[in-house]
Amino acid sequence: MLRFGITRTAIVRFLSGADTIQGKQLIGSNYAINLTSTLLLIIIVLVVNHYAHVAIADSGFSLFFTWFPVVALISLPFNNALSVLQARMRFDLILLLRMFNVGSFMIYLVLNYYFFHSGLLEITWYYIITNLATSMIASIFNWDGIRYVGKANSKTNRIILNFGKYTSGTLIGSNLLKSADTFIIGLSPFLGTIGVALYSIPLKLTEIIEIPIRSFAMTAFPSMSKASIEGNKEWVKHIFYRNAGGMFLMMVPVMLFCFIFAKEFVTILGGPEYTQTAGIFQIFCLYGLLLPIDRFIGVALDSVNRPKQNFFKVVYMTLANIIGDSIVVFGLTYLILMSAVVTLLLSGVYESSVLVLVSTTFTTITILELVAIITILFTIIGIIIGFYYLNQEMKIRYRMILKEGFLFYWEFFKRLIHPGDKQKLYF
Q: Which of these, 375, 400, 396, 377, lies nearest to 386 by C-alpha position?
């Protein structure tokens, strides 16, 4: 996140619409900035490891502090290549690199499990070798742009850094947004680690749902950026409508299926003891319907060169999430607990063990469900703020999101029925 948060979104945005000369300068600046940030992080890690060597050696971070400098340096070309190839919309080469990198490592892990039985150190060595081989491929074919490092200049450096300071903030805010729930739940003396464990299973299922949305966002961003740089805002809106609307319509049957079979999903992932968290996952299913709109609003803001507004959007969402979670976890827990105890007593339940078990279980699940509802609320806040910022740049017609989404699938099914139709589909 710290190494590539500044440059990745920026290089994709500006390189997608750059001419040949400026493109080489941007790629060179991207490489130079990433190399500098990597070296700075390596120096920090080495200094910390030197002065806190004893404490680190006795902790679980010794492997990280030992091998991070090596891994960070040798994986630099690989990571640079991913950014450059995304900007050039060469997703076939991205797939090739990732398949080689992940596939070769996974094959080794399987062979190691059944035959080699190597230790953690040997696995780390092979991981380094895999990343080195992937980076060498990227550099040999110049997919990472290593040959353009000398073409970097102060102008392109400023372009990337000025844009990247906001996108890195957005990335940090997004990570805080995701981790705030479990962090605040963990701080609660009532919920504690049990609450975190119960909440983590539905949350993991939600992260799986996000995978296709991230993939479509990754493919849409360079196209929207190119259209924006060329001054074609109508095409930017067209891509936004089709992606946001298409993904929303795609998620409707998926979320409906997940909502109906929520109990089965949490049982498969966590076991029968997590069945009680099905209600939390059902709430996240409603969140999943909003996620495509929110995600593509952020993509649209970055593509029209409004990273500052996207950053503010994420900040407002993060603040709303933290405030909402804090009110629920620290303000309502004991109120709900007392209500549960009173209800049980009025129902004729007087045995202390039953009172404690039922009331604490009910309170825990209710609080976790309320935390999940806060997720829906801050997402709605983000969508409202995002549309406000987006409308300042280009007038958005909200009904076109669904209309273009339906139109895409209509054209898609027509292509299935009439495969000879050469009309190009845009998603």
A: 396
